[in-house]
Fold this protein.
Amino acid sequence: MKSMFRSRLFRQQFLVLAVLTVFIFAFMVAGIYFRTKSAIETRETGLAGFYRDAVMLALQDWLAERESDIAWMASILESDAERAGTPLAPDAHDRFKALLEAKDSFSDALLLDLEGNVVFGRSGPPARKVSLADRDYFQAAREGRAFVSGVFRNRLTGRYAFAVSRPLRYRGEIRGVLAGTVLLADLVRIVESMGLGSLGSVYITDPERRLVAASSEADFRSPADTAEEGPVLDNLAVREAVARREGVAKYRGESGRTVIGAYGWCPRLNLGMVVELRSDQAYLPITRLLEFFAQFAAGLLVLQLVLAYALSARLIRPIRALAEAAGTLEEREYPEVQAPRTNTELDNLVDTFNRMAKAVRDREGLLKESAARDSLTGLYNHAKIEEFLDFEIRRSRRDDRPVCFVMMDIDHFKSVNDTFGHQAGDTVLKETAGLILRSGRDGDIVGRYGGEEFAVILNARSSGEAAAYCERIRKAVEDTAFVHEGVEIRVTISLGYSCALPSALGPFELIRAADKALYAAKQAGRNRVVAAAL
């Protein structure tokens, strides 16, 4: 085993297989987790919305029952008054107490006169004058309407409650108001009876987002059972609920945990309701599933790693022998591997190696050619142009014909970079190079001499041909609109050339003469052709 791990190829092969195995298991775990999580969230979203609607419906039914109770009590009191022939029967309070005992859902009930004063309540007439004329439920009932008030704080106890009221009529005229008060804690008990349990909580808030009631599993103590004022809640669901909107959302709850909350508004009570389902409870099944799968995957992963080691070792042993043979490439000139035939895939590998050695020899020539080229324009570079010029001068000595060398420089090229950017400058260089190539003839050797300078070893027999060539290039550049990202860029080019017999000038002198002519063209105003004075 140690000898195998000394092999770099084996270590890489084994590492790849091991990482691939781990990745596959991680991908499977992640896939199971996210797919299951999405399904659970979808289910929890539907469940939260369903529970919110169920609670809302239960509250509506419960309110309807309280209204029915008040209507029933009012009808009995009105019947007693008709029989007694007076708006208030002599035994009205005893009758009133009996009715309240039959309907124990009211924390208290009051009979009010038309001035809003309390005539009597559950315990009889008040010890002192109590006026509720400012209460909305009294005013609505005095106007002849049955009414359910919004939530308010009891002046005596400080506890949250709401009232159900109805007018009392005697011989067709309103002679009083019957009002029953219900503690908000009774609403919480209805919520508790819906069976949400430890899965989540229910919050009820007023229009100012102040908590007025909460289920027993909530993170806050319910103020409905106390005289304390509830805290102000600030989360997505509460804000949406008090804005009179209905929906379901995932957010961070008051406890800091992620929850799925369904929210809505109860217009009859002027209260917002939020049903929150705890994500940690909802995800408990998937957590347990992943724990089991992790244990199973760990055992399977060990097995996969053992198999990966065995497979890697079997592949590496024959390859190592070939690698040792390939190590001699630095000492020999692409030797051909001589290996006995094994009648296995290894024979194909040896044959491929020998073909590769031949391909390397062939490609070495191509690499040398590539090294002689400018990476931006594809033209020959400075060094290669000088090499070609030296060769051309030696060749021309045999034919005793002149050698012409042209130097070109794009005018004000720095302003192109400064105005349009270096990428635009690169576009101008590449397209200028293409234009020079298209404007030349067979036998011309074109190169990028450096920066925005180009050089051409011209296949010309006289200075006149060289002059005509240079003018053609100058005119072509002047008439061309180079386009970069939709913007037209126009430039000019200055050219200097030198033509001489190879016996008169060497490569260096020919280049220097053309360069001086180019400098003269620049000094004379650019965008022109100047011949070297020889």
Q: What stands out?
A: The longest strand covers residues 160-170. Residues 8-84 form the longest helix (77 residues). DSSP finds 14 helices and 18 strands in the chain.
